[in-house]
Design brief:
By secondary structure, the protein is α+β, with helices and mostly antiparallel strands. It is built from 21 helices and 25 strands. α9 packs parallel to α19 and α14 crosses α15. 44% of the residues are buried.
């Protein structure tokens, strides 16, 4: 494994030779290299002051070097050169990330990079943002012209990055260290026994792949279904993870992932004995038995949509949330009473939301218009198509007149072991016909008018959850009405799709610089089913295509690619909404084009 260490003064001449060989790799002629030589020379007395580090292999061969120059809050990546024979092997990426880590430790908040044009693509792929040319900073902190610093005339390309520590909430979530991620999605869902949930939980087993992202830095993944090895390798490269253990294929059918772990004493001991926190999708009795955590099913009472509605009403009755309104909701005692309520609203020309007590991703939630009731021949006919079990009949909140306006939003936070509430943030969700499709987090993702009331109300819900004894992640979902107010619709006492985007944003901010927007898309259709090797190739191609645009692609749910109607869950990240949209478009078009090779006409016979 290649490691980074501080350079030594005695290595200065050898390191200068490496720099010149690396520069020459790009085909510059002898005259040009000679003009660069004075500025690229490393002197023994400068090694420490320029904070030069080297990357070396297990045999002690130096493969590259980098320097962090200047003083906080503004510094410069003065040198980053890789031995030509090692280019493309991840050495540059390792050195770059080390520079950002050291910059954070030293309080640097702006890092300038004056790049050789041939290296511009590398810095763009690493998350650096193009910036106008200007003065750079020498090792002694003195500003100098970029041209003079390189001994060149207009040769360099200027980039900038904002080094950032791991977010405070992310440190609080797992203590700032690595964690064991347990993908018990099906197990969590099954404990509610709701008729809207698939008993086999096939979709939940796909969704368990999101266990890769339950914290910013996992040590182990525990998954019900087998996952492609190439998937975990790519995710690790994209998010800078090393040494992540994967325990998959533990249960192909049914919800019993943690029971399957407990049935393997050696595995259970390994997971619980490392002193690292175990993070589940949600709390369950088997998880409590595995971890020795007391099981208190009452903690999850607000997972019920009716109980959450009552909680929202109590908070609003106390005042202090003028931008929040609560739609009326009735728990129908029977299907007949639900039909009467639905019919009365339809006669008044009103749409209605009909909900099961529990449900995930929009399952068990149906919006019924007056026209649909008439077309079906009455409310009873509509209800016959809905899941069995208790129903909640709720007032439908009319959305903004502009179809492009923000409609579905969410708050994410968590309650720590001591009962403290931590705000993670607000997100914009993609909800189509009542079904969750994805979410976007990051700077500017949520309209400014909505952010303050969402954060205030979400924090109030968190305090009530803490007082009720709940400990763990939660969210509060909202819909925006035509008057620009927000209506809370449910709370989820578990991790969520948006929570995954928040985790990845926190990791990328620490790895690539602050300010990432991250979008999770639950379902990107594939044009054809592919063998594992071709799926790996497709994901690698999409990662490169996004990197060329300064964006990051991470396949989030790979197992859907092997369904009869194949699909992928994906994450894309970028520093601007335009780049994020472009990256998503590239991913969707690339995924859809997979089937083109099978549709091509056969060549004509000679």
């Amino acid at each position: 494994m290649v490691k980074v260490r501080a350079a030594r003064a005695a290595e200065a001449e050898a390191l200068t030779g490496l720099v010149m060989r690396s520069k020459a790799h790009w085909g510059y002629d002898a005259g040009f290299l000679a003009s660069c030589a004075p500025e690229l020379r490393i002197r023994p007395e400068e090694v420490a002051s320029r904070r030069i580090v080297v990357a070396e292999d297990p045999q002690g061969t130096v493969l590259g070097l980098a320097s962090l120059e200047g003083a906080a809050p503004l510094a410069t990546l003065g040198l980053l050169f890789v031995e030509p024979s090692a280019i493309g092997q991840g050495v540059g990426r390792l050195l770059y990330r080390d520079v950002l880590r050291r910059a954070v430790e030293q309080g640097v908040r702006r890092l300038l990079i004056d790049s050789d044009p041939h290296a511009a693509g590398f810095y763009r792929a690493m998350g650096a943002v193009a910036a106008p040319a200007g003065p750079t900073v020498a090792a002694d902190g003195v500003a100098v012209a970029a041209d003079a610093a390189a001994g060149l005339d207009g040769h360099l390309v200027r980039f900038e990055v904002a080094p950032a520590p791991l977010a405070d909430w992310a440190r609080a979530w797992t203590g700032g260290g690595r964690a064991v991620h347990v993908g018990n999605v099906a197990e969590f869902n099954a404990q509610f026994g709701d008729a809207s949930l698939d008993r086999e939980q096939g979709a939940a087993h796909h969704y368990s792949c999101l266990a890769a992202f339950y914290s910013p830095c996992p040590s182990a993944l525990v998954l019900p279904r087998a996952v492609p090895a190439g998937w975990t390798d790519l995710v690790g490269r994209q998010l800078g993870w090393t040494g992540v253990e994967v325990y998959d294929g533990l249960v192909e059918r049914g919800p019993g992932l943690v029971d399957a772990v407990r049935a393997r004493p050696a595995l259970a001991a390994r997971l619980t004995g490392a002193g690292e926190p175990l993070v589940p999708w949600g709390l369950t009795r088997p998880f409590g038995l595995l971890t020795g955590r007391p099981w208190r099913p009452g903690e999850l009472r607000y997972e019920s949509k009716a109980a959450a509605h009552g909680l929202f009403g109590r908070i609003l009755a106390e005042g202090g949330h003028p931008g929040i309104v609560l739609p009326a909701q009735v728990r129908a005692a029977t299907r007949w009473s639900a039909a009467r309520l639905l019919a009365a609203r339809a006669r008044a020309g009103k749409s209605t939301v009909v909900k099961s007590e529990h449900g995930v991703g929009g399952s068990g939630t149906t919006v019924v218009t007056a026209g649909q009731v008439r077309a079906a021949g009455g409310a009873r006919a509509v209800l016959r198509r809905l899941p069995r079990g208790p129903l909640l009949v709720e007032e439908f909140v009319e959305g903004p007149p502009d179809p492009g306006a923000a409609r579905d939003l969410t708050y994410d936070g968590f309650v720590d072991a001591a009962g403290g509430v931590h705000e993670v943030g607000a997100a914009l969700m993609d909800v189509t016909e009542g079904a969750y499709r994805g979410a976007t987090v990051g700077p500017g993702a949520v309209p400014q008018w909505a952010e303050e009331p969402i954060l205030a109300f979400g924090a109030a819900v968190g305090r009530e959850l803490a007082a009720s004894g709940y400990r763990g992640w939660f969210d509060v979902d909202f819909v925006a009405d035509a008057a620009g107010r927000l209506a809370p619709t449910e709370t989820n006492l578990r991790l969520t799709g948006p929570s995954i985007a928040f985790m990845v944003a926190a990791r990328l901010d620490a790895l690539r610089g602050a300010g990432h927007l991250v979008r999770i898309a639950d379902r990107v259709e594939l044009g054809a089913r592919l063998p594992e090797a071709q799926l790996d190739e497709l994901c690698a191609d999409l990662a490169r295509a996004c990197a060329d645009r300064g964006a990051v692609f991470v396949p989030a749910i790979p197992t859907g690619a092997f369904d009869p109607a194949p699909w992928l869950g994906v994450l894309v990240a970028a520093h601007s909404l335009e780049a994020l949209d472009a990256a998503e478009a590239v991913v969707r078009s690339g995924a859809a084009a997979v089937g083109a090779m099978f549709d091509a006409p056969a060549p004509a016979a000679p």
